[in-house]
């Protein structure tokens, strides 16, 4: 199975700020390294430079040579803009010549357009976000909304999937979006295995909060990890906040506060996300009936399962399975 080509735009090739290398490295890592044991055909990958340089060059930056030019994004199945120069965002300087028309041509020819962090400014400048919901790093969303009033900017989410156009917040949210693309293209099993190799969470829903008051748990909150692992092994059981708190030797109120501080979500929402993740994996990897998957994932009856799945994922379990049919029948328990 071929999942097509991915073209990543490098908007600065000389004096690339060290900060911007993080977003650039994400799609290179996810799409640029073949994974033959996970999929018969991996992505055809290309780095496409604009030939732009910073003046003066950033003394802490890097130089990046790309084998392809900006016109080579046209014809790619997926085009990713990891970032744009800070001078464009902060000072209103023009984008590299040829970038905006190339983005428009790629979109007109059917490419899936993706931005990470402030790369959303390039898609917005090309008019590809007009009338669409989009996001960027929360530090830039106010500027994005002010400069492009036709864009519905959401500063609270990790990423936004509008089908043919997708945008993400900065840094690790870009990794979440890239793994989301792999999940869309190749299914939950492949995305989960790839995430495991990268030692990152397999799936964070795009609607999860972008900014968490205490994103790094306190040292003693490392004790939450065994509790969460224990819960993941018992998702088919009727777990409550009290059950989890008791397992963690905490009061329900303290457990609630610490989990929310560490993950940005409530215990019940965390359980729902985990159950939906298991349900998606079972839909993709088994031929079990919906009733059985609802029970195994802890989502209850078939009707309750369908209700939560449709509300959170946007399609019914049956439609999801048709989109991601199991490669082979597998048993579970």
TrEMBL record:
Keywords: DNA-binding, Transcription, Transcription regulation. Gene3D superfamilies: 3.40.50.880, Homeodomain-like. Pfam families: DJ-1_PfpI (PF01965), HTH_18 (PF12833). Residues 225-323 form the HTH araC/xylS-type domain. Transmembrane segments: none annotated. PROSITE patterns: HTH_ARAC_FAMILY_1, HTH_ARAC_FAMILY_2. InterPro entries: Class_I_gatase-like, DJ-1/PfpI, Homeodomain-like_sf, HTH_AraC, HTH_AraC-typ_CS, INH-QAR. PANTHER family: ARAC-FAMILY TRANSCRIPTIONAL REGULATOR (PTHR43130), HTH-TYPE TRANSCRIPTIONAL REGULATOR RV1931C (PTHR43130:SF3). This is Helix-turn-helix domain-containing protein.
């Amino acid at each position: 199975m071929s999942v097509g080509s991915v073209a990543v735009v490098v908007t600065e090739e000389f004096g690339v700020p060290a900060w911007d290398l993080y977003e650039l490295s994400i799609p290179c890592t996810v799409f640029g390294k073949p994974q033959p044991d996970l999929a018969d055909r991996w992505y055809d990958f290309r780095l496409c430079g604009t030939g732009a340089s910073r003046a003066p060059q950033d003394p802490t930056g890097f130089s990046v040579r790309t084998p392809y030019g900006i016109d080579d994004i046209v014809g790619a199945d997926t085009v990713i803009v990891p970032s744009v120069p800070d001078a464009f965002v902060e000072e209103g300087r023009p984008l590299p010549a040829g970038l905006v028309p190339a983005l428009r041509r790629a979109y007109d020819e059917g490419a899936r357009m993706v931005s990470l962090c402030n790369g959303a400014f390039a898609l917005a400048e090309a008019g590809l976000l007009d009338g669409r919901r989009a996001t960027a790093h929360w530090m830039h969303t106010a500027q994005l909304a002010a400069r492009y009033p036709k864009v519905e900017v959401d500063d609270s989410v990790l990423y936004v999937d509008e089908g043919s156009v997708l945008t993400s917040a900065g840094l690790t949210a870009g990794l979440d979006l890239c793994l989301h693309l792999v999940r869309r293209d190749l299914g939950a099993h492949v995305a989960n295995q790839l995430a495991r190799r990268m030692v990152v969470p397999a799936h964070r829903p795009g609607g999860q909060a972008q900014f968490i008051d205490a994103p790094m748990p306190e040292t003693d909150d490392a004790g939450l990890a065994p509790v969460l692992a224990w819960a993941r092994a018992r998702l088919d059981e009727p777990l409550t906040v009290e059950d989890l708190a008791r397992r963690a030797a905490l009061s329900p109120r303290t457990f609630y506060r610490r989990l929310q501080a560490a993950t940005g979500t409530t215990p019940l929402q965390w359980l729902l996300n985990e159950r939906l993740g298991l349900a998606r994996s079972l839909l993709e990897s088994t031929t079990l009936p919906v009733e059985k998957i609802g029970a195994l994932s802890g989502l209850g009856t078939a009707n309750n399962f369908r209700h939560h799945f449709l509300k959170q994922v946007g399609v019914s379990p049956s439609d999801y399975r048709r989109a991601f049919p199991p490669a082979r029948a597998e048993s579970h328990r």
